[in-house]
Design goal:
Elements: H1 12-19, E1 24-25, E2 42-48, E3 53-54, E4 61-69, E5 74-80, E6 86-91, E7 97-101, E8 111-116, E9 121-129, E10 136-144, H2 160-176, H3 180-197, H4 200-216, H5 220-236, H6 240-256, H7 260-276, H8 280-296, H9 300-317, H10 320-336, H11 340-356, H12 360-376, H13 380-397, H14 400-416, H15 420-438, H16 444-452, H17 455-467, H18 471-480, H19 484-493, H20 507-517, E11 519-527, E12 535-541, E13 547-553, H21 561-571, H22 586-594, E14 609-613, E15 639-642, H23 646-658, E16 672-678, E17 682-683, E18 692-693, H24 698-711, E19 716-718, H25 723-729, E20 735-739, E21 742-743, H26 749-752, E22 760-762, E23 772-774, H27 775-779, E24 787-791, E25 798-801, E26 804-807, H28 808-814, E27 819-823, H29 829-844, H30 849-863, E28 873-877
Parallel strand pairs: 1-4, 11-14, 14-15, 16-19, 16-20, 20-24, 24-27
Antiparallel strand pairs: 2-10, 3-4, 4-9, 5-8, 5-10, 6-7, 6-9, 11-12, 12-13, 17-18, 21-22, 22-23, 25-26, 27-28
Helix pairs in contact: 2-3, 3-4, 4-5, 4-6, 5-6, 6-7, 6-8, 7-8, 8-9, 8-10, 9-10, 10-11, 10-12, 11-12, 12-13, 12-14, 13-14, 14-15, 14-17, 15-17, 16-19, 17-18, 19-23, 21-22, 24-29, 29-30
Length: about 900
């Protein structure tokens, strides 16, 4: 319990601080030379240590200093320590506490006071630790307030700056109690006052505080805005402690958004700054946060190491809040490592501290993690009980993201206990919160990353519905749990009001889409209870509306599904990790898993459309090359294409219908953009590599020339195929064919340090452009093309997320292209040239895009029987004729 301000005299036992104990008195006479800065009234360094007096209320150590003050004088008092959590009090000449301060902000344990002195006489400054564990060196400065905080009126007890500081402390108390919305309102009032006063230092503090509070509510756009404002001001003021706190808080927002690499960058910068300035408290905070980023990226060893470093620092500094938070993080890591006894031990240590310092938010977090630990051990009743305790606190403090996480975890506990009605209620509650959070005006990349942290709830609800035999309803949940950001982007491209009425498709809508497409839809969903029991769900929606469902147990496989897919890609010469060896053909094994269970529901007519809707690693499956028991490839029996969700299929069809009908016979030269074998730029393929010229592609040149001749149009080759010219022509072209190098890694932040969306197409460089048209650049374009063919290596790859594959194909789709052909591995030159030429010949004969690609594969297979030569390409989106 801390001191409270009141009109009463200072309590008797505290009055003794200023009367009966040895007082360190530093007298300072204020001398003003014309135009000179005022000297400090008091400036000293000291140490709280055993032997100092202790306050009876909480047994905390204190020192006392005195200075002479004048009524009406505005002053600032700052107390800083890297060793302990500070607490600062000011006692007036008549022995009354007139001001006190705990922390500058939720992330800064130093103390500050700004006020106008009410009386002439001797004031006492009490340098105090927050609790009995606090001790170590500190620095105290009392000085005339900066001109921006000097009041312009004659009110001696309530200057604008002191009123604003009182609001800051009120907000701090609200924040500590978990009253985040109230803290925001209070700090906004203080911010307005300090903006009128022009006090940039306090404005920076307040933006930082607001950022933390908005983040606690899950309101990420205003959190990022406030923190970026704070960072700009603190960097301009060269305020290193405040800059470090803001860097940490920005990292925490990106951590919540699921952008762990970006969060890690901020934490590392904060850590480096703290070590450079010997800010041990800042170092402890950054270490703990960095450990969380490592944990989220599955680097458990590094996560444990830096958290243990943080714990040692926080214990040395007497930072009990921080000690509890770090103990909790260590418990999470122990739990992930299967060291359940160690995890429970440190959780309980954290819980004792959080309860001792009345940290309700911390208590809720630890309780939630203990509940998860019990669930992992099969102690479902204990888990549900402790989860409920945590949930009550989260709801009381208004922590929406934390509430969603707990509802999700409670849902899985009910699911494990076969309490399906209760599980359904909890999962639906969690999903409602996730969809509320995603409705904020986030950037596309942030929305995708945030969605990736939420997909577990959709998986849990699918499992719950399937367990109750409600398999059709589970299909709608599977749709609801994928490509939400992509769907928004596509809807925004339409001018028919779709974006305003956008919602996930219900069962009737899904059946209507299958009928409209005259296609058989095959949707895959990989679900996992989190207890190493993966299952594959497969729904088949036939054109007439019939829905069939199959479930495949993946836990009985010798290798994981991901390993099998990677093995198949290695066999085909693609980017795969040959972590398993087998005498069996992986293409046949995948057929048995993915196609055989639903074979009887697929059309007998090989020209009938089959649309595959994969999930996760299934996006990397070479479906055309899958082999049945008779050794026949899937492409021999079915016309295939791929989409990331059924709803995107509906939206790409609307995009196609919103554009003028495309006919090869009526297109003019300006409608085509055909590129082949540009002059290759000299560049490092990956960050740190030596710049090197990419190899020429003579087969791509022959391919482009042959296609241009076939379509009676011009072609861009060599030096003429500059990125600048390509970017100029892209927006108006109706059919685009790019035969060049594709770079998968380029654009990944960890690879190049430059961009966020992976993938680039290579063209000739010039004075304006570097020759690399990135997926991020394409994302910003508005295209009118009906078809884009990326005849290059790995153009269908990227970062696999719940929103689909983030890379070139998604960027083209969001740019407005309804049909895209991309590759899943490094395609060989000569077979690709033959395949692409045949594809356009088939289009000229009136075949649909999917039928044309199938026929091109079948004809190429005759001359190149190895599927690595012809099976890499896949059609995404629409299949209409051109």
């Amino acid at each position: 319990m801390r001191f409270t301000l009141s009109s009463r005299r200072y309590p008797h036992h505290v009055v003794l601080i200023g009367l009966a104990v040895a007082i360190v008195v530093i007298w300072a006479h204020v001398a003003f030379a014309q135009g000179s800065e005022p000297e400090p009234l008091l400036q000293t360094e000291g140490v709280l240590e055993e032997g100092d007096r202790r306050i009876a209320q909480d047994n905390s150590l204190y020192d006392t200093y005195s200075f002479d003050g004048t009524a009406g004088e505005s002053i600032s008092i700052t107390l800083e320590s890297d060793a302990f959590d500070t607490y600062l009090l000011l006692v007036s000449p008549d022995d009354e506490v007139i001001a006190q301060n705990d922390d500058v902000s939720p992330s800064n344990r130093n103390s500050e006071l700004y006020l106008t002195l009410p009386l002439d006489g001797q004031y006492h400054v009490i340098v105090n630790a927050y609790d009995e564990t606090g001790e170590g060196p500190y620095r105290l400065v009392v000085a005339p307030a900066a001109s921006g905080t000097t009041p312009s009126n004659s009110n001696l007890t309530a200057s604008p700056s002191s009123e604003a500081d009182a609001l800051i402390q009120q907000g701090m108390q609200q924040y500590r109690r978990g009253q985040f919305a109230q803290a925001i309102a209070t700090w906004q009032q203080a911010l307005e006052q300090f903006q009128r006063l022009g006090n940039d230092s306090r404005i920076s503090d307040l933006y930082n505080n607001l950022g933390e509070a908005y983040r606690s509510l899950g309101e990420y756009p205003p959190a990022l805005h406030a923190l970026q404002q704070s960072l700009a001001i603190s960097q301009n003021l060269d305020s290193e402690p405040e800059t470090g706190a803001t860097l940490n808080n920005l990292g925490l927002v990106y951590l919540d958004l699921g952008r762990y690499d970006r969060a890690e960058t901020y934490f590392e910068q904060a850590l480096n700054d703290a070590r450079r300035t010997q800010n041990r408290y800042g170092e402890s905070v950054a270490l703990k946060n960095l450990g969380t980023a490592y944990y989220k990226q599955q680097d458990l060893g590094a996560a444990l190491r830096v958290n243990q470093q943080s714990l040692s620092l926080r214990q040395e500094l007497g930072d009990r809040y921080g000690e509890a938070a770090t103990l909790n993080s260590i418990g999470v890591i122990y739990s992930a490592l299967g060291q359940f006894d160690d995890a429970l031990r440190v959780y309980q240590q954290a819980l004792v501290i959080d309860r001792d310092v009345d940290n309700q938010a911390g208590i809720s977090v630890v309780l939630g993690n203990i509940g998860r630990l019990y669930r992992q051990q099969g102690k479902l009743s204990e888990a549900l009980d402790i989860y409920q305790q945590a949930l009550d606190i989260r709801r009381e403090v208004g922590d929406r993201p934390g509430e969603g996480t707990l509802l999700n975890n409670i849902g899985f506990a009910h699911l494990a206990a076969a309490q399906y009605d209760s599980a359904t209620t909890q999962f639906e509650g969690a999903i409602a919160i996730w969809e509320f959070l995603r409705a904020q005006p986030l950037s596309d990349v942030n929305k995708v990353a945030l969605f990736e942290t939420q997909t577990e709830s959709y998986s849990g609800l699918q499992q719950t519905l399937v367990a109750q035999g409600q398999v059709d309803d589970a299909l709608t949940v599977a749709e609801r749990g994928r490509t939400r950001a992509l769907v928004e982007q596509l809807a925004n491209r339409l001018a028919d009001g779709t974006a305003e009425e956008l919602k996930a498709p219900d069962l009737e809508t899904i059946q209507t889409i299958a009928q409209d497409q005259a296609a058989t839809l095959v949707e895959y969903s990989i679900v996992d209870t989190g207890l190493d029991n993966p299952t594959l769900y497969i729904w088949v929606v036939q054109p007439q509306g019939d829905i069939h469902f199959e479930s495949v147990d993946l836990a009985q496989m010798d290798a994981s599904l991901d390993e099998l897919i990677q093995f198949s890609r290695t066999v085909l010469g693609g980017r795969g990790r040959a972590r398993i060896t087998s005498q069996s053909d992986p293409l046949t094994q995948l057929y048995q898993l993915l196609i055989q269970p639903i074979k009887s529901y697929l059309p007998d007519d090989p020209d009938a459309n089959v649309i595959l809707i994969p999930q996760a690693e299934l996006f990397m499956v070479p479906f055309p090359a899958l082999r049945n028991a008779q050794g026949e490839y899937m492409v021999e029996h079915h016309t295939l294409r791929t989409v990331p969700s059924i709803q995107t299929l509906d939206l790409t069809r609307r995009l196609q219908r919103s554009q003028p009908t495309l006919s090869l016979a009526t297109l003019t030269d300006s409608d085509f953009l055909i590129v082949g074998n540009p002059t290759m730029p000299v560049l490092p393929v990956l960050a740190g590599d030596e710049p090197t010229p990419l190899p020429n592609l003579p087969g791509a040149e022959r391919e482009a020339r042959a296609i241009a001749s076939l379509l009676n149009t011009s072609v861009l080759i060599g030096d003429a195929a500059t990125e600048t010219l390509v970017k100029q022509r892209l927006p108006s072209a109706r059919l685009i064919h790019l035969a060049t190098h594709g770079l998968l890694e380029y654009g990944q932040l960890e690879a190049t340090g430059s961009l966020e969306v992976p993938g680039a197409m290579v063209f000739a460089a010039d004075d304006e452009e570097d020759g690399l048209l990135t997926a991020e650049e394409i994302f910003q374009l508005s295209l009118e093309a009906d078809l884009v063919v990326l005849s290059a290596c790995d153009t269908g790859l990227g970062n696999i997320t719940g929103d689909g594959v983030i890379g070139l194909s998604r960027s083209l789709m969001t740019a407005g292209v309804p049909s895209i052909i991309v590759s899943l591995w490094a395609v060989p030159d000569a077979p690709t040239s033959a395949l692409m030429t045949t594809f356009y010949e088939q289009l000229q004969q009136g075949q649909s895009k999917a039928q044309a690609l199938r026929q091109a594969m079948l004809e190429t297979l005759q001359d190149y029987p190895d599927p690595s030569d012809w099976a890499a390409f896949t059609l995404m989106g629409e299949t209409g004729s051109v």
